[in-house]
Design brief:
D-Maltodextrin-Binding Protein, domain 2; 351 residues
Length: 351
């Protein structure tokens, strides 16, 4: 009898140990690695909600600007650096698709996303946010000079807008490239260089990056620059209000959103081929489309959420303008001709 009791106790102890081990294993959080560009941002409480819900640690792998990050993902396709990639946009889309680094996934939340943002029929990428690159203007300057706003790209070559516009080099700047693409979309590949030559003759200023254009040369933000027109974002006016020491009732800047004067950038999330955490990767894609994440997007990355159920902050509703007819260039044409267009632009503008 004692032997039987002893054996029973030993078996019971072993069973309890096994159960304890299994419970401990289940409780150990897994790690999901999300590769992004350096401009990715999300509130701590938002990402904490995903981690708690799925018992996971989210590791954000910032990998440079969007171009650099996509190139890194392609170079490491055989041994992927992450499970998920965020930051592919429509100027880089076909480069990522052609490299075959992404796995298809159709999120159930895609039903809340307007068709205009769904650019891949095979659903290898899922849209997350969008923003318009537009001309921004200094409201005070135009009011003081009783000057009408330009209503088209052609207007920018008129004498009354001479020496008023600062733009970014498309070879070095994302908004600079977006504006170049707007001119290609409007004038066509055969006509955009003529427009740029006229801009040059009319005194356009070219700088290397957005920070220099907006904070040094533009008169509407810091007040230090001489140029009342700058290539920036449709979200720049609400940002002026949000970051002001004493938020004004009206943004000091505005956006020109006339037809074909803006270019719309759409950003996507995708599952990297070879992910070892496919279930968590799918959950993360779903999470980025959820109202929890989408409502966080405007104030974190100063872009617009794609989910039609998302809520915009008051500053965006009051001070942001979006183009109803942005200029368009097919992603495959961008991939095929981007470097050609940039080199031709450089020969025209920087010689």
């Amino acid at each position: 009898m004692k032997r039987y009791i002893l054996l029973t106790l030993v078996l019971l102890a072993a069973l309890l140990a096994a159960c304890s081990s299994a419970t401990s294993t289940r409780a150990s959080p897994r790690t999901l690695t999300v590769m992004t560009h350096d401009s990715f941002a999300v509130s701590e409480q938002v990402i904490a909600k995903f981690q708690a819900q799925h018992n996971v640690t989210v590791q954000i792998l910032a990998s440079g600007d969007a171009v650099t990050a996509v190139n890194q993902a392609i170079l490491n396709k055989d041994v992927p650096l992450a499970d998920v990639f965020f930051g592919i946009d429509n100027t880089l889309l076909t480069r990522a698709l052609d490299a075959d680094i992404l796995e298809a996934y159709a999120s159930p939340l895609l039903s809340d996303i307007p068709a205009q943002f769904k650019l891949d029929e095979k659903q290898r990428v899922t849209p997350v946010d969008y923003g318009d690159v537009c001309l921004n203007y200094d409201k005070a300057y135009f009011a003081e000079h009783n000057l009408a706003l330009p209503d088209s790209l052609e207007d920018l070559t008129a004498p009354e807008y001479a020496n008023q516009l600062v733009v970014e080099n498309p070879a070095a700047s994302s908004p600079g490239l977006a504006f170049l693409l707007a001119t290609v979309g409007h004038f066509g590949p055969q006509g955009y260089l003529d427009f740029w030559a006229e801009l040059r003759a009319n005194g356009v200023k070219v700088v290397e990056d957005w920070e220099t254009a907006y904070y040094t040369e533009f008169s509407g933000s810091s007040g230090r620059g001489p140029y009342p027109l700058v290539v920036s974002y449709a979200s720049s006016p609400p940002a002026e209000v949000i970051f002001a020491e004493e938020p004004p009732e009206e943004a000091p800047t505005g956006s020109v959103v006339a037809p074909d004067t803006c270019f719309r950038q759409i950003e996507f999330v995708a599952i990297l081929r070879g992910s070892q955490n496919r279930d968590l990767a799918e959950a993360w894609v779903d999470f980025m489309l959820s109202p929890t994440f989408q409502n966080d997007v405007p104030m974190q990355m100063f872009v617009f959420p794609v989910n039609s159920r998302a809520t915009l902050p008051a500053e965006f509703i009051e001070h942001a303008q979006l183009a109803t007819q942005p200029a368009t260039v097919a992603p495959e044409d961008i991939t095929a001709h981007r470097e050609e267009w940039i080199e031709a632009w450089s020969a025209t503008m920087l010689r």
